Amino acid sequence: MNDPLASANAESSAVGSDLPFFLGLGCLGGVYVLLIVAMLAADMSFTTPHHLLQALGSAEIQYAIKLSLISCTLTTVLSLWVAVPLGYLMSRFRFPGRAVVESILDIPIVLPPLVIGLSLLILFQTAPGRAIEKLLPFTFAVPGVVLAQFAVACAFAVRTMRVAFDQISPRSEQVALTLGCRRSQAFMMVVLPQTRRGMITAATLAWARSLGEFGPILIFSGATRMRTEVLSTTVFLELSVGNIEAAVAVSLLMIAASAVVLTVVRGLGSKKLFAQGSVP
Amino acid sequence: MIAVRNLTVHAGSFSLSGISFNIPARAYGVLMGKTGSGKTTLLEAVCGLRPAASGSIELCGRDVTRLKAADRGIGYVPQDRALFPSMTVGQHLSFALKIRKWESVRIERRVNELAELLGIEKLLSRFPQGLSGGEAQRVALGRALSASPRILILDEPLGALDDETRQEMCVLLKAVMKQTQVTALHITHSRSEARMLSDIVLKLESCSSIRPEEPGSAVVESCPV
User: Fold this and answer.
1) Rounded distance, CA B30 to CA B168, Å?
2) Are residues B78 and A174, on separate chains, in Cβ contact within 8 Å?
3) Residue B15 sits in a domain of what CATH number?
4) Could you tell me the pTM of the whole model?
5) CATH topology of domain A58-277
6) Which is it for strands B74-77 and B151-155: parallel, antiparallel or unpaired?
7) How many CB pairs under 8 A join A and B?
8) Cβ-contact B7, B202 below 8 angstroms
9) Chain B partners within 8 Å of A276 (Cβ)
10) Is residue B26 included in any domain, yes or no?
């Protein structure tokens, strides 16, 4: 008697092996993975623990690490402060000019970073900009570092928060409204707790983008040692004076920080990140 | 009582117009109609989640057409149940009561009363993620009934349940109706569900008309206080 399952298997094997397909995928994708690993390996082979310790012992680099940590954290807080309401508005409501606002929000993502720095510089040469400068100096000053980072990082936080809100069914919010909530109560008590992980991802991405920001900071805040120097500008400054060992050591520090951040995002991210919104 | 008069509702490019029907006080109305005929849109308008372009909606003799959802005094069980993932079952049952600033003793008493009515006493500390379909439905029903609304709106509440659980839920809904004395409007595609639960069956035939399936059964106008 013929086993239908066996004949089905025989038929599928007649189609041919899937191995070449997966080999093709692996080879094409593997080239890029290999490139990244090779770059990291090259960086690590170029330096020694001694160079790393020497770089960490330098007062300028210590200042850059401190300023990077403080400015990135401040930028992250500010980005979240803006990204949560903006992401919610863009996700939930239709209003006139929404498409325009959406395009404007994408500008910092697609624009060359140098152009953002230049635009900030020009903005603070206008009358309102000069008035703000009198109260709090931004150009070539530490607040300018935060603003330059914020101008780019916030766009990524907004995009992440928008996706987080998109993943949450508006139905739970509507139920909360029928239960007697004002919109603000429904948002705070029902929606926001569901975006907790989305907020962590947005914060992590904003922090990582801020850490890697270079162009806008260089143009808008300059790269003055012990003043507006952050880790990304340290790499540039060390390279410009021919101190490649220190530049590589600082680069490795940034790579380590990025790896930590990406691990956090990967851990909290993917589908699991938003799975809270679903009910079995 | 739920009285809808000449209602027009828009949902994007879709429109419902000239909708009129009446569900007497403490009656169980079942709304049927083809997929895409606008049943959920109509329910959302009754709940206050979608504005009425024209016409009127009266709940228990009170014109609520322009009132916010929060002020209509209804309990709403949506199709997907929409439980709050960050809250326990107990917190679901107490949510509307906390919004109304009830005293904690009174809240506790009401939560226990509801849990007993719905048979979910053992689930109070659980989160929605681990609940079965039937359990989740009971929680959604409990949350909707918690503030003792006089109107209960259910959008295909039993659609995703297996036959046995659906049967159990029908029995439970009948018991709940008897005990709470609410007026209900329930969407379903199931004729057996409609037969089992309904006092009145309404059929949304096209985008513009609604009629009682059994003429003459939707005539009671009064709503005892």
Assistant:
1) 18
2) yes
3) 3.40.50.300
4) 0.82
5) MetI-like fold (1.10.3720)
6) parallel
7) 86
8) no
9) 85-86, 129
10) yes
**Which 3 state secondary structure label does DSSP give B63?**
strand
Residue B9 β-bridge partners: B16, B52
Q: How far is CA B103 from the centre of its chain?
A: 26
Using a CB-CB cut-off of 8 Å, the residues of chain A touching B133 are 280
What would the DSSP string read from start to end of A156-224? Answer: HHHHHHHHHHHTS-HHHHHHHHHTT--HHHHIIIIIHHHTHHHHHHHHHHHHHHHHH--HHHHHHT---
In a domain, B71, yes or no: yes
Edge-to-edge strand order for the sheet containing B28-33? B74-77, B151-155, B183-187, B28-33, B200-204, B210-212
B142 touches chain A (CB under 8 A): no
B76 at the A interface (CB within 8 A)? yes
Contact B84 A190 (CB under 8 A): yes
ipTM of the complex: 0.89
Domain range enclosing B54: 2-81+140-212
Domain contains B63:
yes
Find residues 3-62 of chain A whose CB sits inside 8 Å of chain B. Answer: none
Task: Count the domains in chain B.
Answer: 1
pLDDT given at position A86:
97
pLDDT tens for the 280 residues of chain A, in order? 455 555 555 555 678 889 999 999 999 999 999 999 999 999 889 888 888 888 888 899 999 999 999 999 999 999 999 999 999 999 999 999 999 999 999 999 999 999 999 999 999 999 999 999 999 999 999 999 999 999 999 999 999 999 999 999 999 999 999 999 999 999 999 999 999 889 988 998 999 999 999 999 999 999 898 999 999 999 999 899 988 888 998 999 888 888 887 787 777 655 444 444 333 2
CB B185 within 8 Å of CB B31: yes
Instruction: Select from B47, B84, B129 the residue whose CB has the most chain A CBs within 10 Å, as the one to mutate to test that interface.
Output: B84
Contact at CB, A279 and B130, closer than 8 angstroms: no
